[in-house]
Design brief:
The chain is of the alpha/beta class. The chain has helices spanning about 1-25, 30-35, 40-50, 65-75, 80-105, 155-170, 185-200, 215-235, 245-255, 260-270, 280-290, 300-305, 310-320, 345-350, 350-370, and strands at about 110-120, 125-135, 140-150, 175-180, 210-215. The protein has a 5-stranded mixed sheet. InterPro entries: HATC_C_dom, RNaseH-like_sf, ZnF_BED_domain_contain.
Length: about 375
């Protein structure tokens, strides 16, 4: 009997607590209600920070399903409006931009640029400028610096790029630029303008011969087009009974000759047997190291980071070279025949927000990948 009495008392106490909780939750002066009430500005700030690190649209705060979820967790939360969220996001963008600009100013290395043209479904073109570099901690960074609408004027691309470099004050750190395959004449003119500007601030390697890096996806596309044209020509001439191609015969004769290879071996032997050789350089020591066995998950960045104390000069060179993008598209996009389109979430945010969203997300998501 005493046990039953104790259980009844415990149940009665639990019901009173539950009743008190309901009164406090719903009452105007309830303790729980006061604790669950949130500041609208603070909520917008935290929501904007969350959107920075995701691919969610700003319009999510108007989505009925999202609102139901939030109000289920806390009926007192105030999300504010899309306008408030945009204003808070722009604040974060400006704050982060100052930090990113300082990181680039303090960077003890070179920056490679990639320039891509993105399109909206309405066929508006946007120029996306991205900085690629490896920071002092040997972390690969890919930060969008600018996303802006491009008009039809021929000199607009170069003007946009010049303004971008000036705004970020990185003219003296640019080492290469990779562009998509547009008009060759337009690309060459744009690259020349940029190279002239950079050379006013610094000396480029090999007098700028390596400044323009051609997108490998575009090179592959051109190779395929040329090959198909050659095949079509051969197929067209196949019925004519033409003899072997003279050009191929010359190539065959060159391959059969061992003269060139023998000369190279002789020169190498003379060099290695010379008694007046200079002391071994850092490069000599690197080349004498045994070749690392191939493994599938070999990380070249991690290897150079670990070897930077042994080969400090070569490590600096490797850091700048490994940051150069060889393409501005993914392996999947390389097979698309149409221009890449901008994310619909960015388009829905409005033209005034697209650049801020794309830039900030590239900065914040890069940090989250590191973590």
């Amino acid at each position: 009997m005493s046990g039953d009495h104790a259980n009844e008392n415990a149940l009665d106490t639990e019901m009173k607590v539950h009743s008190l909780g309901n009164e406090s939750f719903g009452g105007a002066n309830g303790i729980v209600g006061e604790n669950l009430a949130t500041d609208e500005a603070k909520t917008s700030r935290e929501l904007a920070k969350w959107i920075c690190a995701t691919d969610v649209s700003l319009q999510i705060i108007e989505d009925p399903g999202f609102l139901d979820l939030v109000h289920t967790l806390n009926p007192f939360v105030k999300l504010g409006t899309v306008k408030m969220l945009k204003a808070e996001y722009l604040k974060i963008f400006k704050e982060e931009r100052v930090k990113i600009k300082q990181v680039l100013a303090d960077l003890d290395g070179q920056i490679s640029l990639s320039v891509d043209v993105l399109k909206t479904p309405a066929c508006y073109e946007y120029l996306c400028v991205t900085a690629h570099f490896i920071d002092d901690g040997w972390e690969v960074k890919k930060w969008v610096l600018s996303l802006c609408h491009v008009w039809e004027e021929e000199d607009d691309v170069s003007k946009v790029l010049l303004k971008c470099l000036s705004d970020w004050n990185i003219e003296n750190k640019i080492s290469t630029i990779t562009m998509t395959n547009g008009s060759d004449s337009e690309n060459d003119a744009t690259v020349k303008i940029l190279k002239d500007l950079v050379q006013e601030k610094k000396k480029l390697q090999l007098n700028g011969q390596l400044f323009h890096v051609y997108c490998c996806a575009d090179i592959l596309s051109l190779i395929v087009q040329d090959t198909l044209a050659e095949i079509q020509e051969i197929i067209g001439e196949g019925g004519d009974g033409a003899g072997p191609c003279p050009k191929f015969r010359r190539v065959e004769e060159g391959c059969d000759s061992s003269k060139y290879g023998f000369d190279w071996v002789q020169e190498y032997n003379q060099f290695t047997q010379s008694k007046n050789r200079c002391p071994k350089s850092e490069l000599d020591l690197y080349l004498e190291d045994p070749v690392i066995p191939w493994i599938e998950d070999f990380d070249i960045i991690r290897w150079w980071r670990a070897s930077s104390s042994k080969y400090p000069t070569l490590a600096r060179v490797a850091r700048d070279l490994l940051a150069i993008p060889i393409t501005v598209v993914t392996s999947y996009d390389a097979y698309l025949t149409t221009a890449r389109e901008i994310d619909l979430c960015l388009i829905s945010s409005g033209r005034d927000m697209m650049g801020a969203l794309m830039c900030t997300r590239s900065w914040k998501q890069s940090d989250s990948d590191k973590d």
